[in-house]
Design goal:
Blueprint: H1 3-6, H2 14-21, H3 49-64, E1 73-77, H4 89-96, E2 102-105, H5 111-124, E3 129-137, E4 155-163, E5 171-178, E6 186-187, E7 195-196, H6 198-220, E8 229-232, H7 237-247, H8 258-261, H9 268-278, E9 287-294, E10 298-305
Parallel strand pairs: 1-2, 1-3, 8-9
Antiparallel strand pairs: 3-4, 5-10, 6-7, 9-10
The structure holds acetyl coenzyme *A (ACO).
Acetyl coenzyme *A binds next to helix 2 and helix 6.
């Protein structure tokens, strides 16, 4: 859905949206764009968090050469589950043939990096293989009549397979944090769209996520110049650039898909990882800095040595 299509819903322009956010288009799983998106039940044939999660996970498992039966745990990071009960990870596990274990994880847009740290923890505790999926159907949590934030969001899913291996862990450093007193700057109640104080989110996100990235790099004993690829949560191109600037990471090292994806919440970091591989920008041995941040306000950073 290109920016131009949003002009049928509210007063805006492609230039305004692109200049403020870097976004030119977003993908919507839930069908034609209408001002009021009805709730989508998983069986009604439209795309859901589970269907996108299964598509992404199948590709990741195929590339890793791993069968669903070999997965000890699947984590679905999402804040847009298809049903209240059960977790989206259960139907996802069923479709992938996973019996090892399944859980949802909601840390808003920081969900994927929380999932990677959790998965690495399970491997440290003895698991052999953990599948981490980030999937969100943001179009169902968006108020399509609110021009101040509807243009930001899109739907998507991405996945990684974590496997135990001898030697040093690939996760060199990590950091998590929360400031729950900031929950009111970005929230959605059951059955209604998101409410956001945009400038406050912008300011807090840059400060908190940059500080978290610094802590994670310190723990990993690496310098900003060692980072081959910086993969921030794709919230807004200006936030991503401001973070890189504060951290002293060259802007050419930023992985960005926001131009065509919008903000896909938990899916945004794995989407940017996959795009970087497709573009031959990510290679075995590279140091990757993944920085998630989101509503809550939560944040979560991982320094990872990439490898297949
Ligand atoms: N089209 C045209 N004009 C608009 C639109 C629109 N879609 N939306 C707002 N405007 C107008 C406003 O009404 C305002 O007009 P006024 O000056 O006459 O009052 C003007 O544009 C400026 O509005 P601001 O809100 O001050 O615009 P700002 O420069 O702050 O940009 C934005 C807004 C892009 C939302 C910015 O605040 C931002 O990116 N914030 C972070 C949002 C974000 O990333 N959220 C998610 C992160 S966390 C997570 O992923 C869960």
């Amino acid at each position: 859905v290109p920016n131009e299509e949003l002009t049928s819903l509210f007063d805006t322009s492609d230039e305004w949206i692109a200049e403020r956010s870097g976004i030119r288009a977003r993908r919507l799983a839930t069908g034609p764009l209408v001002a009021t998106q009805p709730p989508v039940h998983p069986v009604d044939g439209l795309g859901t968090t589970a269907t996108m999660a299964v598509t992404a996970a199948s590709e990741a498992l195929g590339r890793a050469g791993v069968r669903g039966a070999d997965v000890d745990l699947v984590i679905v990071a999402t804040m847009t589950p298809d049903q209240v009960i059960p977790g989206t990870s259960s139907p996802v596990a069923a479709q992938l043939g996973i019996r090892g274990g399944a859980m949802d994880l909601n840390a808003a847009c920081a969900g994927f990096t929380y999932g990677v740290i959790t998965g690495a923890g399970f491997i440290h505790a003895g698991a052999d293989c953990v599948l981490v999926i980030g999937a969100d159907t943001m179009s169902r949590a968006t108020n399509w009549e609110d021009r101040t934030n509807a243009f930001l969001f899109g739907d998507g899913a991405g996945a990684v397979v974590l496997e135990a291996s001898p030697g040093q862990s690939s996760m060199l450093g990590w950091d998590v944090g929360v400031d729950g007193s900031l929950a009111e700057i970005l929230y959605a109640d059951h059955g209604s769209g998101m409410v956001m104080k945009g400038q406050e989110v912008f300011r807090r996100a840059v400060l908190a996520a940059s500080e978290s990235a610094r802590v994670a790099m310190d723990r990993a004993k690496v310098e900003p110049g060692d980072i081959a690829l910086f993969v921030p949560h794709q919230a807004n191109l200006r936030i991503m650039r401001a973070m890189a600037d504060r951290l002293g990471i060259d802007a050419t090292r930023i992985a960005s898909v926001i131009e065509w994806s919008g903000n896909t919440s938990s899916a945004s970091i794995p989407l940017a990882l996959a795009q970087s591989i497709a573009d031959d920008r990510l290679h075995d041995g590279d140091l990757v800095l993944m920085a998630g941040f989101g509503s809550g306000m939560t944040w979560s950073t991982v320094v990872w040595r990439w490898g297949r």
